[in-house]
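Lecture 7 notes: from sequence to structure.

We start with a single chain of 189 residues. Read the sequence below before looking at the structure.
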Amino acid sequence: MEVLFVKNMVCHRCVLAVEEVLKNSAIAFQKVIAGEIHLAEKLSREKHDLLSSPLAAIGLELIDNRMSSLIEKIKQLVIKKARNEVGEKERKTKLSVYLSQQLHHEYTYLSSFFSSVEGRTIENYFIEQRVEKVKEMLVYNEKTLLDISFDMEYSSVAHLSSQFKKITGLTPSHFRKVGSAKRKMIDNI
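Now the structure, written as tokens:
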């Protein structure tokens, strides 16, 4: 068995697109999850090269080294936690503890490694991801700001508004008016 790591594969649609690429390329796989392709057997160099091109065409990239794969794993976990796509126990766990438990590294190592490669902190990336989720919720216009702050586990509407304005330069109310034109794709954050 072999696991390939894929950069920018952050959503369910990405998983489906990768599965389609694998089927079209006649590459046997066991499963595809966000950021990873689990193959039944080791991929030959020719098949590896054959896979790279169609993945690049849909904005994805095979990661060839361990350092890049660790960064991608950190990003995947941060995205899940920021969007509250984790279990209740993980939602209540501090980000630093959650990442350490999931990746089996001290948080100080993960944090300094991430900052040196990405040029920003894990915490900043986490806040940016949370704000993107809030943007999504604002665009759908189905919930009040109070409900959104509760769902996203902010301590208050004021805290949400403060972080939102710091990241976007807009208040949540103003953003709701201008809408989806200001949203970013997850992999562009």
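The first strand starts at residue 2 and ends at 7. Keep this in mind for problem set 3.
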